[in-house]
Each structure stands twice: as C-alpha cells, then as structure tokens.
Fold each of these.
Amino acid sequence: MIYLCFGNDRDKVLNRSSGLVDKALSDLPDALLVRINVEGFEKAKFEELINGRSLFSKTIIVLCDGLLSNKETSLYLSNKIEDVAVSANSFIFRDGSVDKKTTDSFKKNGAKIEELNLSPVNNSGYAGAREVKLKTGYESFNIWTESYWLRRD
C-alpha cells in the first residue's frame, strides 16, 4: 500500500502521516517501522525495503520523509513506484511539494494521495488573523510623555 501526504501546511502533513503510521501499527502490531529521510537515503537499502522482510515481523511500514523534494531521489522513486506498489510492505511518503508528474505516477499505481495546504489568505490578515483594536480611554500611551521621564531618575 502506498500513501502520499504532501502540501505547504507542514503541521497537517505531519499529523496526517503520523496518524497513518499509528493506524498501520495498531492494525499490525508486529510490524516494523522504518524511517527514511533525504540525508539517509540509499538506493540499495530502499531496494531491500521493497523486496525484503524483517526477521521478526511479516510487514515493514516505511515512512519516507522529504524524499520527493530531491530531484534525483524523486526520479529514482518514480521509476521504482511500480515495484513499491506490488510490495508486501506499506510505504508512507510525506513531503512539502510534489510535482504533477510524480503525483500522476503515484496515482497510476494506486497510491492514496492527500494534498494538505494552508487556507488561502484573505483581506483580514495572514491566514485569517483578526485585527484587535485597543481602547485606552481619552489618553493614549506614549513612552515620550512627561510621566515616563519623571520616573527615570
């Protein structure tokens, strides 16, 4: 099984992918969880995860973090996605941005794809923040008032 969670809302992507991992681990309590990131990615190890099994568990859950943002790794994964699709192991990919070609190749091979983006910015501020106006009465605060300078002695 292949899952792809991506988008510019990193918190939602992390929460959704963590939820998928938790669900997979609860469904398969003897499964082994393996995490791969861009710095630790090696083609030979990935091949082993596609075809291999663990000594103590029947399935491996592979959490791939940020692999699709690297062009070389993304190209390699696009070529190997058919092998990943027929693998007995589960692969969960999470990333910030994924190009359309990669998304299409994942979709073609039966991946469950979820795009999680920030809500659009509207006229009332960044991501819907509200402007707060303070009412202080007749006098407004100013650090250059006489009372400020009288207390400084």
Note: The first strand starts at residue 2 and ends at 6.
Amino acid sequence: MEEYKKVTENIKKKINNLSPITNNYFISELEILQENILNFLHIEISLIKIKNEKIIFDNLEKISLLALKYLTTFTEKESIQIIKENQDLFEKKNNDYGCSYKDFTLLGLIVRINDKINRILTIEKKNTMVDEDKCETVNDLYNYCIISLTYRN
C-alpha cells in the first residue's frame, strides 16, 4: 500500500493542469499509448519481454494521467477525489483478492491494462454484449496503471 501511495503522490504533482478532454481525444490518445507499449514488448507464444522499461513506464504514467483527465471530465469529480476513491478501491480489492497482482508482476499488469484498453475501445464501438459502465473500466485502467508504476525504480 505504501508504494501505491507514493505513486499517487507523484501523480498528484502532475495534475495541476488537468483540463477537460473530449471523448475522441481520449480514445485517440489511448490507442497511441497502447501501440507505444505494444511496440516496446517482445511477444512470443510463451514469452513476453520488455524492450525498454523507461518507455513502458512513461507510457503507463501517461495512460494514468489520461484516465484521470477522462474521469474528471466525464464524472465531474475533482482529481483528488478520484485518486482517493481509487486508492480506497485498491485497498478493498487487495483485501479481497490478496496481492494477486504480484503473481505475474509488471507483465501481468500490462496484460490487464491491455485488456482494459481493448474493453474501452470495444465499448466505444458499441460492440458489447455485456453492459459495463465505461467510467468503471477507465477507473480499473487507472488503478492498474498506478499499481504497475509501483514497479518503477
């Protein structure tokens, strides 16, 4: 939990100019950041290797800030409130699941982040069969990014 709090403190330092964004901007930036991450992974059938950790972490931080911008725009909540709510959610889920995110470390989190991005893009295209709130998925994306940033040294 301490590492999570350290990452959120770092994020708080970078949010002073969170201006509202459009949904189209959010989606286009998210696609670019997803591509950036995938381009710096070496993926084989039974192997995933990170080619450049700095670029991966920079893009994960950008995704977390983008998710925060989206949430402040579309929920009309203040960023500090969103950060606190997500920290509380992380603590509760960590209690329920244990530290399962540690089982596959950063790579497991990147896979979960990619799943969330793909889910958001599918919701955007309205090709969903399960009714899921987009803001809830963006919250999950934000939290996975924050957790992944705890692995940055």
Note: The beta strands are 41-44, 47-50.
Amino acid sequence: MYNCYILPILTYNCGTWSLNAPLENIINIAHRKQLRQILNFKWFHKISNKYLYEITNSKSISTLARSARWRLFGHILRLLEETPAFQCMVNFFNCSASKKIGKPKYNLVSTLQHDCKRLGAFSLTSENDLFYLQNIASDRKTWKHLVEQLYFD
C-alpha cells in the first residue's frame, strides 16, 4: 500500500530536487517515521535504520532521489546538443561570472558535483567533464551501471 500510494507522491519529480545534507536528512527522517508508523513500532522499539529498510524492502528517499537525479542527467546528456536542457548544462560551465557573495546556491549541477565527489570516480567541474560523461551516457548499459553505483549511504 505504502509503495503504491504514498511513495510515488513523496518522490514525485525527485530527479529535479537539489538537496543539501540537512534537507536530505529531514526527508529521510520523515520517511522512516512513516515506515515505523505503518509497522506499529513505537519509540521504545529500538531498531536501526538499516534494519528498518531491510524489513520494509525499501531505500532511503535521498538514495531514490539521487538515482532519479542521475537517470534524468543521463537523459539530458543523450539529448541533441541543440536542445535547451543540454545547452543550460554547457552554459553553466561556460559562465565566467565571478563568485557571488553569500551562501552558495544549490542547483542540479552543484548537487551532481557533490555526488561525484562522494563517489570519487570522476569529476564534473568543466565542460570537458560534461562531454566525457556524455560519451559514457551514450551507452545506456554503462550509464545504468554507473547509476547503480550511486546507491551508497
């Protein structure tokens, strides 16, 4: 029931979310709270989050969002280079504006860069890196394997 009715609403369009660590934590806490309520676990039932995910056969929302984000990114990379979505990615790296003062803005590219740092396999800091990933994304099997590696927590 939960996977059929609640989870799709909770994760709708999650590929476009650019979450920082505190927001990921808040969403994961809400998800675990719902799972515990469904299983009728109270506060005095001491179970780990890992065990909760195992018995419910689910993953954290941040992991699902990360996977959806990279699948969306793969679709963008496979688009023609003239499409607006791909051009936005290229223009992000071509922007020569100086650093702005204040808190850094979270966007899809900065979130993908953070994921790359956590994975440690490649970087996404220049247009050359974007075209390198475009070559990888052109082979769907290789890209799918890469996205599956991102299921880390």
Note: Helices lie at 2-10, 21-38, 49-56, 61-78, 84-94, 108-119, 127-138, 140-149.
Amino acid sequence: MESVFKDALRHISSLARLFSNRGDITYVITLLLMELGFPSHIVGFSFLVDAIGIFEEDFKSVALYGLYPCIAKRYDEKIDSKNIEQTIRDAIKKAWGSGNQVVWCYYFPKGKKPTSEEFIAQIARILHLWKGSCEAQKDRTERQKEEEFYELR
C-alpha cells in the first residue's frame, strides 16, 4: 500500500508542478480527474471535485455518507443526494472504462473498479498526504533561507 501512495504522490506532484504553482487543491483535483479520463463536461465531474475537496479537507470528521447531502446543499438542493451519488457512480464507471489505465493503476493497483466511496476516500487521502508533504517542503525551504540569512550576518 505504501508504494501505491508513493507512485500516486509522485504523480500528483508532477501534475501540480507542470500546471500550477498555486497549490490550489481544487485545481489539482480537477487536473487529476482529467488525467484519469473523467470528461469535465459531465455533471458527476463537478460533484466529484466537490466531494473530494470536502473529504480531503477534513476526512477524519466527515463521514462519506454525509458528503452527498452536503454537496446537495451547495447546489441549493436542486438535486437530491441519491442523484448525486448515482451521478458520481456513473462518472467513475465512464472514466474507468475509457480513461488512462496506467494512471488509474497509480491510485487503484488491484485493477478493480472502485466504488464511489472508495474512489473519493482514496483520492482524498492521497491528496491530503500530498498537501502535507508540500507544506513540509515549504517549511524546510523557509528554514533553509533563514539559516542562510543568519550565516551571511
């Protein structure tokens, strides 16, 4: 499992480096989903971006079953949570069938199509680890600059 995270983290880092210096998690989620083969024009795409973002932000206190009502509230409850879950499931099915299987293997190496909950949880966990490693790298860089500054004095 650890090597899966290493490959996935390396992949996310390369995506973020290539396309963004902003560190905007929504942007990185969007890039990742597109890289996996999710068509960005389908409704499930935006629901997935929201779900992964919400879960990544606080996956220890947010239960997966509570995500769909939360997303429905963001859309002024114009769509109910059951439809959101179905739309996400359909998006995953479509991307799994026609997406980039090499990239899918970075995140789901068993070769089995993940459920909606498995997909959201796995991607959110990996993104959370990636954000943590980015923050650690930023802290190291700032400490190095500080040390260099004091060495010059």
Note: The CA atoms of residues 55 and 97 lie 25 Å apart.
